[in-house]
Design brief:
This protein has three domains: about 230 residues, Aminohydrolase, N-terminal nucleophile (Ntn) domain (Glutamine Phosphoribosylpyrophosphate, subunit 1, domain 1); about 180 residues, Glucose-6-phosphate isomerase like protein, domain 1 (Rossmann fold), CATH 3.40.50; about 150 residues, Rossmann fold (3-Layer(aba) Sandwich), CATH 3.40.50.10490. The chain contains 17 helices and 25 strands. Helix 6 runs parallel beside helix 11 and helix 8 runs antiparallel to helix 14. The structure holds fructose -6-phosphate.
């Protein structure tokens, strides 16, 4: 859960590295560092976020360099533990994303050989191993080191006196940007968008030898060609564009992310795969998992196809037979647990599909086929527009299986999404921001919508919130209801309405204040609830979207009222690349 960058070419490396790390901050932000090589190796490291101003003091010389923004794994977030890590002599530096599982053994062995460790990081073992094996050529030393490493790594290594970066990848991503006699390297596309749209995705097991005018990629000791691909994201998409926070900007981009994903449609070969499935298993984590749960309710209702939705992190503990289509859903395409689950499905010979927002991500390389969401880059740690785009992709699958029954609904859904963006949520925000705990409840597809509302609330406002199936609240959680515990209830028309209204009354009888989401003009609900938030009276598929959006806004404004760090909530990073 860290970000790495590298630059080699004709520019001054320091500003390129600093800018690149700022773009990667959502992957981790407890410390950062850069190293450059001119005639000698220079290193600059600090604790805290790279945006806090300290980076501006870095004036390292050289047009070859590497950088890292850290989310502490092995070792506290201190300057010593920040990357780059260097060898005993201070000649070789590396930045690393991933986890070296046999680090303790390696460290013991290296210390016996006389190496002195300065940090508590697993990364430092890699640089000492390279030093140990260095015999005049950095590439050979890296190649000799890789077989000793167990675990995951994406690392960049540089050495004094050499305009050269060696990059190696195993289970953690590296993408290279191709410029004019210059190359960039990064954990993901974000830092590259400022400079180039031409990129090369390294594969697991690849080692790249990069000099200003030349790039050689090796796999298993053989030189290989990797295609240059064109990225269709642009740098403007990564800017705040006048909004106070990326999260708010991304919430407002949801009509577009939904529309674009629907417009992109589904390729013929993916269609065939989806039509052939007798049952569908989905794997995902966090917010993405919630979209798979919503899909389960909707797909089983509308297309009568059996659906399993599993958390990526728990998938390996289920041994039920698996012999049909498995779909992994992930904004980043880099979530370790989701990738591991998809690999398990492949090992069992299931056809696999990735639904992801990031072209070229690991998941797209593992899955047989990919259905790309069109959310554009999502910078805020909290997923919003990627959630909506995932729902767009998943709803298209439902539409496909229902022979286009929802063509009209889906092609107009973005308009209804746009309608709720400017809702006034002042009273609800005042209630939530005074609370220590809150419950979100719903039924059917609105149960996972409630779970998602609660997740958003807790992750950015730090108000403890739980999403519950409305019928379950009375089986224990009722004991927690007090006049200070708001309950957010999603009460849309249809089969769930009457029973949801009863559940609201039960909650009110326990003196908990109710914030009810219901369709515009629902006077009954407006009278029972303490606060009523109207959403447009639309098709069920669209209500799922509009209700979700309102809950995102509720979390956002509550977090603002509490003065939270909206785009970088504490203890969280966007891309979770550890188990
Ligand atoms: C919450 C959030 C996370 C992610 C989860 C999976 O707002 O963003 O719960 O949804 O870490 O990430 P992806 O979708 O990249 O696999």
């Amino acid at each position: 859960m860290c970000g790495i960058v590298g630059y080699i070419g004709r520019r001054d490396a320091t500003p390129v590295l600093i800018q690149g790390l700022k773009r990667l901050e959502y992957r981790g932000y407890d410390s950062f560092g850069i190293a450059t090589v001119g005639s000698e190796l220079e290193v600059y490291k600090r604790t805290g976020s790279i945006s806090d101003g300290e980076a501006e003091a870095a004036h390292l010389r050289g047009s070859t360099g590497i950088g890292h923004t850290r989310w502490a794994g092995y070792g506290e977030p201190t300057v010593v533990n920040a990357h780059p890590q260097i060898d005993c002599e201070g000649k070789i530096a590396i930045v690393h994303n991933g986890t070296i599982e046999n680090y303790s053994d390696l460290r013991r062995h290296l210390e016996e050989q006389g190496h002195t460790f300065r940090s508590e990081t697993d990364t430092e073992a890699i640089v000492h191993l390279i030093e140990e094996r260095y015999d005049g050529d950095l590439l050979s030393a890296v190649n000799a080191t890789l077989p000793l490493l167990q675990g995951s790594y994406a690392f960049l290594a540089i050495m004094e006196d050499a305009e050269r970066i060696i990059a190696a990848r195993n289970k953690s991503p590296i993408v290279l940007g191709v410029g004019d006699a210059e190359f960039f390297a990064a954990s993901d596309l974000m830092p590259l968008l400022d400079y180039t749209e031409r990129v090369i995705y390294l594969e697991d097991g690849d080692v790249a030898d990069i000099t200003p005018g030349r790039l050689d990629i090796y796999h298993g000791g053989q030189r290989v060609e990797r295609p240059i691909e064109l990225v269709d994201w642009c740098v403007e998409d990564t800017r705040k564009g006048g909004f106070d926070h990326y999260m708010l900007k991304e919430i407002f981009e949801q009509p577009q992310s939904f529309y674009e994903t629907i417009r992109a449609g589904i390729d013929e070969d993916v269609r065939q795969m989806l039509m052939d499935a007798d049952e569908i298993t989905l794997v995902a984590c966090g917010t993405s998992y919630h979209t798979t749960l919503i899909f389960k309710y909707l797909a089983e209702t509308f297309c009568n196809v059996p659906v399993r939705a599993e958390m990526g992190s728990e998938f390996k503990y289920f041994t039920a037979p698996l012999n049909n289509l498995v779909i992994a859903v992930s904004q980043s395409g880099e979530t370790t647990d989701t990738i591991a689950a998809l690999n398990m499905a492949k090992a069992r010979n299931c056809p696999t599909l990735a639904i992801t927002n990031v072209q070229g991500s690991t998941l797209t390389r593992v899955a047989d086929k990919t259905l790309l969401m069109r959310a554009g880059p999502e910078v805020s740690v909290a997923a919003t527009k990627s959630y909506t785009a995932q729902l767009a992709a998943l709803m298209q699958i439902i539409n496909l299986r229902c022979e286009g029954a929802f063509d009209d609904v889906l092609s107009h859904a973005h308009l209804a999404i746009g309608d709720v963006l400017l809702h006034n949520l002042e009273d609800a925000v005042a209630l939530c921001s005074r609370a220590d705990h809150a419950f979100f409840m719903g039924r059917g597809p609105f149960y996972p919508v409630a779970m998602e509302g609660a997740l958003k609330m807790k992750e950015i406002s730090y108000v403890h919130a739980e999403g519950y199936a409305a019928g379950e609240l009375k089986h224990g959680p009722f004991a927690l209801l007090t006049p200070e515990t708001p309950v957010v209830a999603i009460c849309t028309p249809g089969p769930i309405y009457n029973v949801m209204v009863s559940n609201v009354k039960e909650v009110k009888a326990r003196k908990a204040p109710v914030i009810a989401l219901g369709v515009d003009g629902d006077k009954e609900l407006a009278e029972i609830a303490d606060i009523f938030i109207p959403i447009p009276d639309t098709h069920l598929l669209v209500q799922v979207l509009t209700a979700s959006l309102v809950l995102q806004l509720l979390a956002y404004h509550t977090a603002c009222a509490l003065g939270r760090d909206i785009d970088r909530p504490r203890n969280l990073a966007k891309s979770v690349t550890v188990e």
